[in-house]
Amino acid sequence: MLRDDVIEYSLDGHHSEEAGKKIRTKIWKVTALLTAITLVEVLLGVYIKQGSGLWPFVKWTFIALTLLKAGYIVLIFMHLGDEKKSLKYIVLVPYFLFMLYLIFIALMEALAVGDAWATYGG
Amino acid sequence: MAGHATKEIDAATLWGGKVSPFSTSYGKLMMWFFLVSDALTFGGLLVAYGFVRHDAQDAWPIGEETFNSLPFLGHGYPLVYVALMTFILIVSSVTMVLAVEAGHRMDRKGVTKWMIATIIGGFFFVGSQAWEWYHFIHGSEFGKIELADGSQAVVSGHFGEIENFVVTEAGHHHKKGEVIKEDLMHTFQHAAVAGHIENGVIELHDGSKAKITKKNDEHLTLIVKKAGAKYKLNDRIKDSKAAKEYYGTLYSGTPNRVIYGANLEQNEYGPQQYGQFFFFITGFHGFHVFSGVMINIIILIGVILGTYHKRGHYEMVEKTGLYWHFVDLVWVFVFTFFYLV
């Protein structure tokens, strides 16, 4: 019988008051970090305009910071970092492989289509 | 803490088999599978957005120019509002983790408290998004204008207030000499789109004509988004020249030269697809937030009734927590690719 509500392994992985304190400290630290990253992103967005010389650098900084934020959310908030390695990898690896492929193929195609419009009119 | 098997368990709890796959419960694993598939949907949408954007390159609107308003404070605050929305969602994600943590200590009061905080955060976010949509649909005071040479330009600057319309030619309703002071902006924009303004004289619904009294605009700049015979892409036309071009067209009496706000067919910010992607992606995300709030409310009721306490664990809170964090995760990407980059 498949039952969702049966107490088992991770489910009754209750922790004590002291362990809870440590976990909460960690949660607040991650919160401060995520907020700081968002603040940095906004300041960069406001002060460095698109098209300026620094823009390509800023753009990649944005993407790197986004991935960093995503990493903290998935690994700490969603506890994926505490799950078994096998679970971690069946979630992350197929997704990343597929998305990288999709991004590559779609953006390459978009540039080609853009060039075609620019060359042959429209 | 989620993790490795720590004690002997009977076969019934092991999904009816001999081992428990990934040392996790059936429900949690299925939640992860669902989240991966949902993440693929959002990934697909954002990649499609990236495709159209790379294809249209320079004409694409810039986040900090498009989203620069705050409630009650008006324009001139680039990105502040969306940053606030991001912060609200991050905080509600944090309260959710705290609810899960309280659940691990079997602290029912704690779970209730943090779940309520999470739900409030969720409502705040949905409300913020409603405001943002309203603003996006409503548009700016200037709109996007098609100039005399066929080029299209968006406008930045401070719109001089319209003070009144003085009726110069009577119609069905208004008498000559009457001073109209109500619903000015709305009437003005409608007339501008319909081509009912000529040389500073507006033709009202009832057929009367009125002279527009309007303060001067400040820092008026036209930014060309589509090249015409005279202006190139990304040309900036400033001050008196800008006023001459802008009002030359707006007051020319020709219809459909200006677009205010956005709908699914056209928008003042950029290419047509920009509005469609904005509505679809932020709308789809907003729908996720809304359903997340609803699920959280259902679980909160369970917590308050003591359902999970009797069960001996708060895993349901953990599972809805996964969904809620996922919603936050998606927003992090939407924020970057829609507003920042």
Secondary structure blueprint with pairings:
The complex is a heterodimer of chains A (122) and B (341).
Chain A: H1 17-47, H2 55-77, H3 85-120
Helix pairs in contact in A: 1-2
Chain B: H1 26-56, H2 63-66, H3 80-104, H4 108-138, E1 144-146, E2 152-158, E3 162-169, E4 179-180, H5 184-194, E5 197-198, E6 201-203, E7 209-214, E8 218-226, E9 236-238, H6 239-250, E10 258-259, H7 272-305, H8 307-311, H9 315-340
Antiparallel strand pairs in B: 1-2, 1-10, 2-8, 3-4, 3-7, 5-6, 6-7, 8-9
Written account of the structure:
The complex is a heterodimer of chains A (122) and B (341). Chain A folds into two domains: 17-82; 84-122. Chain A is mainly α. Chain A has three helices and no strands. Residues 1-8 of chain A have low confidence and may be disordered. Chain B folds into two domains: 11-139 and 273-340, Cytochrome c oxidase, subunit III, four-helix bundle (Four Helix Bundle (Hemerythrin (Met), subunit A), Up-down Bundle); 144-264, no CATH class. Chain B contains nine helices and ten strands. In chain B, strand 6 and strand 7 (209-214) form a beta hairpin. In chain B, helix 1 (26-56) packs antiparallel against helix 7, helix 3 (80-104) packs antiparallel against helix 4 (108-138) and helix 7 packs antiparallel against helix 9. The model of chain B is unreliable at 1-7 (pLDDT under 50). At the A-B interface, helix 1, helix 2 and helix 3 of A face helix 1, helix 3 and helix 9 of B.
What would you say about this model in short?
Chain A contains 3 helices and no strands. Chain A is an all-alpha fold and 122 residues long.
Distance between the termini of chain B: 37 Å
- Low-confidence parts of chain A: 1-8
Largest β-sheet summary of chain B: 5 strands, antiparallel
Average pLDDT of chain A:
85
**Which band does the percent of strand residues of chain B land in?**
5-15%
> What multimeric state do the chains show?
heterodimer
* Overall 3D shape of chain A: flat
Sheet-strand content of chain A, in percent, reads under 5%
The CATH superfamily of the largest domain in chain B is known as Cytochrome c oxidase, subunit III, four-helix bundle
The general outline of chain B is elongated
Query: What is the helix tally of chain B?
Result: 9
What CATH calls the topology of the largest domain in chain B is: Four Helix Bundle (Hemerythrin (Met), subunit A)
Helix content of chain A: over 70%
Computed over alpha carbons, the radius of gyration of chain A is 22 Å
